[in-house]
Design a protein that fits this description.
The protein is of the alpha/beta class. It folds into two domains: about 160 residues, Rossmann fold (3-Layer(aba) Sandwich), CATH 3.40.50; about 70 residues. The chain is built from nine helices and 13 strands. Strands 3-2-1-4-5-6-11 form a seven-stranded parallel β-sheet, with helices on both faces. A two-stranded parallel ribbon has the order 7-10. Strands 8-13 form a two-stranded parallel ribbon. The chain starts with a strand and ends with a helix.
Length: about 290
């Protein structure tokens, strides 16, 4: 088993979950972290429990060459990503620095002969209206920009298999991001109404634990390089979901349906990841989370 991993984006929601999963499965996990008090505290707590956790602190991307040149890992998993639904001028700089400059710098800094697999997490948001390429926002445009950059490295890293894994909406326990499941739980806890933009809103929701399983498929199975997707077996109508759940729990979710225009659901055809299957369903998970609120 290729058990040495370099992981970017380990302090994010998916990254934290994947880091613990890999550590529990005896992988040696090197993570790149900004040199901040918050990240140092996070690293300190993990190092207490996992000897195979190896943080690499940097102050800027210029340090990556020195920090990574002598590192020996089999695979890089890129989860580094700044997400914003909309942006201002400062956000634009942060998006490009995180989603393009940093991710490219890691590849540029790492010795090309040592790397066997590069696994990049991308987003279906680059396929607005299910088009071949139509970014939903600037975040999506930066994700596509990095995909284009990867094409260059695929040529120069001749011994490396490159994979892009496309995701829809991800949820899970301890998710503090301002996404719809977090909003439902927070408003339910505070006894506030959950505002759903339209009774036609449908989302493809996948548990982060299912994402972890997909990453392990890339690490352990023989997969042809290329683009793959994992997704829930069906899109979920959010209004119907909440109404159905309210029949099964005592402390009901207060619901307010708005009449806003919504984006078309993205159903771009991308190859399904082989050897992977969905193990978690949003209805069962959300009932559990809501009951835990009480």
């Amino acid at each position: 088993m290729d058990n040495k991993i370099l992981l970017t984006g380990s302090s994010g929601f998916i990254g934290k979950s994947l880091t613990i999963n890999l550590l529990n499965n005896k992988y040696q996990v090197f993570v790149i972290l900004n040199n901040s008090k918050k990240n140092k505290a996070l690293a300190k707590s993990l190092k207490k429990n996992y000897k195979n956790y190896k943080p690499i602190f940097i102050n800027n991307v210029k340090e990556l060459k020195k920090k990574l040149s002598k590192l020996k890992v089999n695979s890089i998993i890129n989860l580094a990503s700044k997400y914003l639904r909309s942006h201002n001028f400062k956000d634009m700089i942060d998006l490009i620095n995180s989603n393009i400059l940093f991710t490219t710098s890691v590849l540029e800094a790492y010795p090309k002969k040592k790397l066997k697999k590069y696994i990049n997490i991308s987003s279906v948001m680059i396929h607005k209206n299910s088009e071949n390429y139509l970014p939903l926002n600037l975040y999506a445009a930066t994700k596509k920009g990095f995909l284009d950059i990867l094409k260059f490295y695929e040529v120069s890293f001749k011994n490396t298999k490159f994979y892009n894994l496309f995701l829809h909406d991800i949820y899970g326990e301890n998710d503090k991001r301002k996404k719809i499941i977090h909003t439902i739980l927070e408003n339910h806890r505070q006894k506030k109404s959950v505002k759903i933009s339209s009774n036609k809103l449908e989302l493809n929701l996948l548990n982060v634990k299912d994402v972890n399983q997909a990453i392990k498929v890339f690490l352990t199975k023989k997969i042809k390089p290329g683009n793959y997707i994992i997704k829930s077996s069906k899109f979920t109508n959010m209004v119907r979901l909440i109404k159905k759940i309210n029949t099964k729990i005592d402390n009901k979710v207060k619901l307010k349906v708005l009449n806003k225009k919504i984006e078309k659901k993205i159903q771009k055809k991308i190859t399904s990841l082989p050897h992977w299957k969905q193990n978690f369903e949003i209805e069962n998970d959300l009932i559990k989370y809501l009951n835990d609120n009480n």
